[in-house]
Amino acid sequence: MKKRLCLLIAAGGLWANMSFADTPAEVRVAYSGGSQVLMLAKADGSLDKALNSKVKWVQFASGADALNYFASNAIDIANFGSSPATAGIVRKLPVEIIGVSGVIASYERLIGKDGIAKINDIEGKRVAYPPNSTAQYALEAAISVNKLDRSKITLLPLRPAEMVAAWKRGDIDAGYVWAPFAQELEASGGHQVFATKDLQKDGYLIYNNYVVRKAFAEQYPEAVTAFLRVHQQKVDEFRKDPERAAAIVAKEVGAPVTTAANTLGGLEYPTLAQQGTADWLGNGTQTSNSGIGKALTKTSSFLAGIGEIRKRDIPANWDTAIESRYIRDAAVAAQ
């Protein structure tokens, strides 16, 4: 059912008047099972209120699953890694990046067993990673920038839960993965060897992003803008009281509070205003040369190098892959 109405949204103690045309009856939002600020909106129902729609929360295990959901038209918006998002765009899925939900710092990391003290020590070892993920991208980048001999490393593609089981059986020596699985490896005798933030000095921007179906965004642009406003509200809530936020998220995803706190604190959160600049999504005029545009170029080159995508499929520019107007509209509404 389509309807036109006026909606009031609480924003930092102020009330913003938003007009919604053709409000969707349901918005299907996909998320991983890990801790993320968006879970605060799931817990208190604030996203449903902001969108004036019923939110259907769709959980997935990996970015590859999110791509499959988009391909089958089963979701509208998803929060997942930059690497699988890039793969989906190159494969011409009708989606676009609308925002950065968090820059990966210590949230994803390499966990090693005794005998692996530094990244160079993984030569001669068995190292697992979740395929088609930001963790795989970070691991391969770490191997490259540290000039390791890849032929001396046994790389094993395993889903996170499979990685934990392989670790406990003694089948692997190290694993590059995100929370809560990283903590499970640490609790079973592992220790941090390398974190994704260590790649930032080498020019790697690895992040989780919000991706939307283009048809949904075109039909419901104000809903997309409202979604991003809620994201910022929840980031602000987390920053104001990290302990309270971690407790809420932990309960929502069924994780220990320490795990939720570690995960939420392991991401960096650019503001809406920052994201609408050349450093991130661009201001609408320099999309391909924006920070995210350059990251897409670098990521797609990596994916082509490992055979995940075909080099000839990489587009000449990213003008249709990134849409910053929603984040810029959300930033204006937040002022």
Spell out the blueprint of helices and strands.
Elements: E1 5-11, E2 14-20, E3 26-32, H1 38-44, H2 46-51, E4 54-60, H3 63-71, E5 77-81, H4 82-90, E6 95-104, E7 108-112, E8 126-129, H5 134-145, E9 154-157, H6 160-169, E10 174-178, H7 181-187, E11 191-195, E12 207-213, H8 214-219, H9 221-240, H10 242-253, H11 257-265, E13 267-268, H12 272-275, H13 291-305, H14 325-334
Parallel strand pairs: 3-4, 3-5, 8-9, 8-10
Antiparallel strand pairs: 1-2, 5-12, 6-12, 6-13, 7-10, 7-11
Helix pairs in contact: 1-10, 4-13, 9-10, 9-14, 10-11
Characterise this structure.
It is a single chain. With 335 residues, the protein is α/β, with parallel strands linked by helices. It has 14 helices and 13 strands. The protein folds into two domains: 26-103 and 206-333, Periplasmic binding protein-like II (D-Maltodextrin-Binding Protein, domain 2, 3-Layer(aba) Sandwich), CATH 3.40.190.10; 108-202, 3-Layer(aba) Sandwich (D-Maltodextrin-Binding Protein, domain 2), CATH 3.40.190. Helices cover 41% and strands 22% of the residues. The strands form three sheets. A six-stranded mixed β-sheet has the order 4-3-5-12-6-13, with helices on both faces. A five-stranded mixed β-sheet has the order 9-8-10-7-11, with helices on both faces. A hairpin with a 2-residue loop joins strand 1 and strand 2 (14-20). Helix 1 crosses helix 10 (242-253), helix 4 crosses helix 13 and helix 9 packs across helix 14 (325-334).
